[in-house]
Amino acid sequence: MENKAVIFDMDGVICHTNPFHSKAFRVFFEKRGLNPTDEEFAKHMFGKSNSYILKHFLGRIIEGEEFTQMEEEKEGLFREIYAEHIETISGYMDWLKMLKAEGFKTGVATSAPKANLELIMGRLGFEPMMESILASEDVTAHKPDPQVYLKSANNLGVEPADCVVFEDSFSGVSAAINAGMKVVGVLSSHTKEELPPCDFHINDYSEISLDILNKIR
């Protein structure tokens, strides 16, 4: 499978982090007199870049040093809250080990800051199994732009058409489709109906197999 690859988003795909991002953003926004609803978070937070989230909820473009400070504040809150709760979506590590045993190239492509990725990789220990590791600092355009997935394919030495992406958000699935890749929708945060059309859907990794993956490809 040297010319085949599987690429994973992180939030909502490797780990179910969205509830903890919500908690961090609640603290962040409460300090500023804002109290977004769960519905607003689902629509405007999950799978979105921090620049989009801050612009939407604060009602103006946040950039430069102000953006850097706000992002560091919120992501620091997230890491503090999530550090004692890190665990994968059920079956993920077994699925990743199976892919490696079968010779698949694998990568992670997240819109999250590198510090978040390093926290999670450090705790779960999957970094040595990834031939490509990309976070928000590694791209100039965020999902639904396909840049992170096209760059991942290049790092892995495979064509986009030979990649299967695991994604959980509208913008993430759109990015993978825009990159010309097949997509497995992980239903950790959204229903099938809330995502663009995927090639397959799972609730956790007990619902995927090599046979299914090969049919998708």
Plain-language structure description:
This protein is α/β, with parallel strands linked by helices. It contains 9 helices and 6 strands. Strands 3-2-1-4-5-6 form a 6-stranded parallel β-sheet, sandwiched between helices. The chain is globular, with a radius of gyration of 17 Å. It starts with a strand and ends with a helix. 41% of the residues are buried.
* Share of residues in strands: 5-15%
Query: What is the oligomer described by this structure?
Result: single chain
Mean pLDDT: 94
Please state how the strands of the largest beta sheet are arranged side by side. 3-2-1-4-5-6
State the gist of this model.
This protein has 217 residues and is of the alpha/beta class. 44% of the residues lie in helices and 12% in strands. Helix 8 (170-178) links the parallel strand 4 (163-167) and strand 5 (182-186).
Reconstruct the topology from this structure:
Layout: E1 5-8, H1 18-30, H2 38-44, H3 50-58, H4 64-82, H5 92-101, E2 105-109, H6 114-124, E3 132-134, H7 147-156, E4 163-167, H8 170-178, E5 182-186, E6 200-202, H9 210-216
Helix pairs in contact: 1-4
